[in-house]
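The authors assume throughout that readers already know how a fold can be written as discrete tokens. For illustration, here is how one protein appears when written out as sequence plus structure tokens:
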Amino acid sequence: MAKAVVVEERIPIPDNVEVQIKEKKVVVRGPKGVLERDFSYARSIQILKQDKEVIVRAYFAKSREKALVGTIAAHISNMITGVTKGFRYWLKIIFTHFPVSVRVEGDKVIIENFLGEKAPRIAKIHGNVKVEVRDTDIVVEGIDIEAVAQTAANIELATKVKGFDRRVFADGIYIYKKEVIES
């Protein structure tokens, strides 16, 4: 497999965002908050700030380094989108017989009466994520895409039922929409 001499990705920095890079720690500040991430595991990758761009670069890159350049660039791009706009995941509560009640308490989402069970099912909320229950929808919002996605996945997994055909038995909570907040 041939090595590429230079593999490079450039991420533009919007006017209302400030990016600081110290060694391989990237801090992104924007109108919605601050996100911080450490990329020190990527030893052969350079992360630089030049004018109004972040440059992720590798020299004589093999396939792993090429992949890392793209991955790190995507992470930084998501951090910039998060601090300027934010991320929102929509989940739908589906039940056929037993009415399911969902409420938020602190850093947990409590799902009660799922399939008529007496014990509540609990899903953990990660990071600084806001969870809101609106009728049969659950809205998960935040600036860190990984925390938002993990929280939504935890809620979905809390109602996973084993041993039944999912095409027939549809009760549960499911992610049905992922979006960037445009407001």
Observations:
- Residues 63-84 form the longest helix (22 residues).
